[in-house]
Every structure is written in structure tokens, then in C-alpha cells.
Amino acid sequence: MRKRIPIIAGNWKMHLTAAEAVQLVDGIHYGLPFPGDVDVIVAPPFLSLPGMANHLRESYIGIAAQNLHFEDQGAFTGECSGKQVKDAGADYVIVGHSERRQYFAETDEIINKKIKASYRNSLVPILCIGETLEERERGEVSAIIGRQLAVGLLDVPGPEAARLIIAYEPVWAIGTGKTALPGQVEDVHRLIRVSLALKYGGLVADAVRILYGGSVKPSNSKELLTLPNVDGALVGGASLKAPDFIEIIKSTG
Ligand code: PEP
Questions:
Q1: By the 8 A CB rule, do 65 and 90 touch?
Q2: What residue owns the CA closest to ligand 1's atom 2?
Q3: Could you tell me which residues come within 8 angstroms of residue 168 by beta carbon, excluding any fewer than 6 positions away?
Q4: CA–centroid distance, residue 99 to ligand 1 (Å)
């Protein structure tokens, strides 16, 4: 199995003004000028994308959008398309975050259209999947993960899937301070890897980077990031503080 370069991605959600965003990325860039063998990504709100892309031109920090519409253009008031997100300077896009599923009624079918729109616009999707606490307690984790992968990746061909990033984010661990136990995380990551291997073959399954997300912070990142099938982290709250984000990046080394 070849070594996968880890990813640490910060999801800023609906936080930070443009000036605060600049201050945060400067804190990361100058606080950690040489991050080593790790891909670092930040996901600012739409409005900050062009400013961030311009500001980070010379930096190792990559940029993701937090969402996109599945059409490239049209009468969809208030939305942004993949074409616009790419034009604004993003190279990645978060798709199917549990907050989008929960508050904006995104179904796996919509998410599948967004995954296709990402590839169509040369954006690398970060597909978020994960179960709720009730689903875990009912013993439905594999069924939920299986369905989110099967429908989310419907008709996505192997060469595109090989570039995919998946974030396993148990909904009960997001923004709650509750982190999944290392054993629970590794079990689901292995399940995702096996599902990808069954659908696309071992080479593609080996290439896909599978991140963990859910209350990752400096005190737990090392333990989580050294698990065999964990290739990085999608970080919410702790990505808003440069020192914490830097500590998490360092724990990949
Ligand atoms: C997230 O928003 O994807 C996330 C994992 O948030 P937090 O780290 O705050 O739990």
C-alpha cells in the first residue's frame, strides 16, 4: 500500500469577517512556515473565497468552498455554483456536511448531483458522511455509511473516485466536544475503505484519503491521526484558532 499524504482541513462554517480570516491564515502560515508532508486546507465562507485565494497565492494553504449548487448556472437565488466557486479560487469543496443535511434538507441524491458538479468543475469534493447517535444506538452504522456512499457516489467513475476525499463525521461528535473512540473511528474508516474496494477495486480504495471529523483538537489529534485508515482530519471549532490548528497539523508528522 502506498503512503497517502495526510490532509488537515479547517471548516470555518459561518464564522470570521474577511479581515479576521486574513489574520487567521497569517497566524497559520507564519506560525508554521514549513508544514512538512501534509496538505493543509481552509474552507472559508463563500464571500471570503476570492480574497483568501488572492491572499494565499504564495502559501501552502489550499482553499475549499463549504458548499456548491449542483447546477452550473441558473435561477437559484442565493446559491453559488461549482463554476463560480472554482472561478473564486477554490480547488476543493465540502459536500454533504451534516449541517447541510440537517438544516438544508440535503439528501444523498442531491449530494450525488453536487459530487458530479464538483468533478465537472475541476473541484476535488470532500464528501462528508456519518451516522446520528440514534442510528448508532440502533446498530445501523454500516447500513447508513453504505447508503451514503452508494447513493453519494452513484455513477462516479473510478478515475474520478480516486481523487475523492471522504470525511467520516459522526453527527453526534460534531461541535459537541464528544470525540469518537479510536476503535470506533478505525472500524468505520476500514468499512469505508472496504466499500470503496468492492465498488472500485483496491487501487482506487487505497488512493482515497479518508479524514475523521468531530471535535478534533490538539489533545486528541495524535491518537486519531495515527490510526491506520485515518488520513487526516476535518476540523471545525479548533480550526478557528491558529495555535490549535497548527498543533493538529503537526500531529500528522
Ligand atoms: C465540522 O464542522 O466538520 C466539525 C468536525 O466540527 P468540530 O470539529 O467543531 O466538531
A1: yes
A2: 236
A3: 129, 130, 145, 185, 188, 189, 192, 210, 211, 212, 213
A4: 10
174-184 confidence digits (pLDDT tens): 988 888 999 99
Q: What is the average per-residue pLDDT within 100-124?
A: 98
User: How far apart are the CA of 145 and the centre of ligand 1, in A?
Assistant: 18
Reported as a single tens digit per residue, the pLDDT across 189-219 is 999 999 999 999 999 999 999 999 999 999 9
Q: What is the mean pLDDT of residues 134-152?
A: 97
In angstroms, what is the span from residue 107 Cα to ligand 1's centroid?
A: 20
If you take atom 3 of ligand 1, which residue's CA is the nearest one? 236
User: Is any ligand 1 atom within 6 A of the Cβ of residue 192?
Assistant: no
Looking at ligand 1, which residue's alpha carbon is closest to its atom 7?
236
Q: Name beta bridge partners: 209.
A: 165
What nine digits make up the cell of 172? 453526534
Which atom of ligand 1 lies closest to the CA of 176?
10
Please tell me the distance from the alpha carbon of residue 140 to that of residue 135, in angstroms, as a whole number: 5
pTM of the predicted model, to two decimals?
A: 0.97
Domains of the chain from N-terminus onward: 7-250 (3.20.20.70)
Q: What is the pLDDT of residue 2?
A: 57
CB of residue 66 inside a 6 A radius of ligand 1: no
47-58 pLDDT tens trace: 999 999 999 999
